[in-house]
Amino acid sequence: MFKYIKHESLDDVSIISEGMKIDGSIETKGNIRVDGEVTGHIVAAGNVTIGDKGIVTGDLQSKTMTIGGKVFGGVTVSEKLVLESGCELTGDIVAKILIIEEGASYIGYCDMKQAGNEENKKHPKQSFPDGAGVKKEAASEAKVNINS
Q1: Run of H or E residues at 138
Q2: Which helix (H) or strand (E) holds 139?
Q3: Distance between CA atoms of residues 114 and 2, nearest Å
Q4: How much is the pLDDT for 118?
């Protein structure tokens, strides 16, 4: 079992396919798509895509991100975050642009003012080492559930 993966190419797209499970952190200078399961943090210089069957328990950080599956952890995006219909996000968001499609579910806090902050580019705003996503008392304070 590995604990850390690091890719070097800016144009690479790494794919965690359905049925694959990874326990550990992932860092890439390229893009990554998750259709399987990842328990650990993901940091990408480019785009992170969580497919509709993808599950991530850990913090995510990238330039742009699209979530269609389930994420339990903080999300830091320097540009645009899209929560697709059917996605479930439990965790705090830092993003410059946030798009929430009808049918998406989100529990957490959102900070759109700090998206360009250099500190947020280095580390996600909120870390959830136990995979809890958000503090229990916060879950009732901020819930967005868009349904048709």
Answers
A1: helix 136-139
A2: helix 136-139
A3: 33
A4: 53
Helix (H) or strand (E) holding 121: helix 118-122
Q: What is the pLDDT of residues 113-133, one digit of tens each?
A: 776 655 544 544 444 444 444
Domain ranges of the chain: 4-143
Q: Could you tell me if 84 and 70 are in contact, meaning their C-beta atoms sit under 8 angstroms apart?
A: no
Starting at the edge strand that comes first in sequence, how are the strands of the sheet with 55-57 ordered? 21-23, 37-39, 55-57, 70-72, 88-90, 105-107, 143-145
CA 103 – CA 148 distance, rounded (Å): 7
Angstrom distance (rounded) from CA 91 to CA 72 = 6
Separation of alpha carbons 28 and 34, rounded Å: 13
Angstrom distances, CA of residue 25 to CA of 4, 44, 65, 88: 5, 11, 17, 21
Query: Which pLDDT tens digit goes with each residue over 10-64?
Result: 667 899 999 999 999 999 999 999 999 999 999 999 999 999 999 999 999 999 9
Would you state the structure tokens that stand for residue 20, as one six-digit string? 């694959």
